[in-house]
Amino acid sequence: MVLRLRKASLCVLIVRYAKRTDDHQWLLQHKDVTDFESRRHLAMMMFPEVKEDYEELHEMLIDRSQLLAESFEYIVHAESEALHGGLFMEFKNEEATGPGVLREWFFLVTQAIFNPQNALFVACPSDRRRFYPNPASKVDPMHLDYFTFSGRVIALALMHKVQVGIVFDRVFFLQLAGRHISLEDIRDADPCLYSGCKQILQMDPEFIDSDALGLTFVREVEELGSIKVVELCPGGKGIVVNSKNREKYVNLLIQHRFVTSISDPVSRFARGFADILSKSGEHKLFFRSLELEDLDWMLYGSESAICVEDWKAHTEYSSYKETDPQISWFWKAFT
């Protein structure tokens, strides 16, 4: 209560003085006394510090035409300790190196991982930036290894403070944090299921008790082009949905759709993410210490307009002066 009354001062102190060697677990569990900057600061200290010495970095030489496959080999087969110092990245037959090349690699490999054509993740219908694991990913026998790889890549991007242009859907974020998923949480991931469940819960009791819907405690799942009927509970085929058990039915339906069916991919992603943290057992604490909107900012950034005046104030010119006509034309194009 004291900290809530002094929230602004506390947040400034956290960012200014909190160190990696401190124990922040008690504070991470009280998000209501912190703001985004202080939560991000505390969460980032759960990662190792990126080294400046190139000899301590994990080196990668990637062929652009084999970006995903070669990146997978370099990352998933590396010892986690070898990744804790950071990464040094080069593209084959290209001379450029440094932070800019590493940022480009992070962006390109993340776009490849989350490309729906690779069947690892599903984009939300209402927001194509948001993703959660694809239940059908198991058609690839190596899919779980790729989820471990994905977890490592996202954690490394956060550690290097690189925004990768994707964000997690709430159902994925909550599972990584070890939280329960409710009906309201699936609104973006599956609008049709959300709408259908809402209607079932709001229907007149007499209508639903008449068995007009013909529902039982089962779920139809499409696998390799065929429909498979899965019982949501023992004997589910014989349990008719009525006004007394419809809440249980909706809850079991949601849990099977967004928890049971993707539990292995989520677990392997979490394991890969945990490999990069200083203490591997803290991955749930990392996600619990943040709001989903916090992680959005860290992975995607703001969608607000660029501040041109701030950009101009921090621009360095080579072979040009700020007063040259070409520079004036350039800035005029952005205003």
What does the model show?
Helices cover 46% and strands 10% of the residues. It has 335 residues and is mostly helical. The protein has a three-stranded mixed sheet with strand order 3-4-5. Helix 2 runs parallel beside helix 4, helix 7 runs antiparallel to helix 8 (143-159) and helix 8 (143-159) packs parallel to helix 13. The longest helix has 17 residues, at 143-159. The model has no long low-confidence stretch (mean pLDDT 89).
| Radius of gyration, CA atoms, in whole angstroms | 24 Å
Which architecture of the largest domain would the CATH scheme give at its second level? Alpha-Beta Complex
Order of helices and strands: HHHHEHHEHEEHEHHHEEHHHHHH
Strand order of the largest sheet: 3-4-5
CATH superfamily of the largest domain: Hect, E3 ligase catalytic domains
Number of helices: 17
Mean pLDDT: 89
Helix-strand makeup class: mainly alpha
What is the CATH C-level name of the largest domain? Alpha Beta
Total number of strands:
7
| Low-pLDDT windows of residues | none
Main beta sheet strand tally, sense and closure: 3 strands, mixed
Helical percent range? 40-55%
- How many individual domains? 3
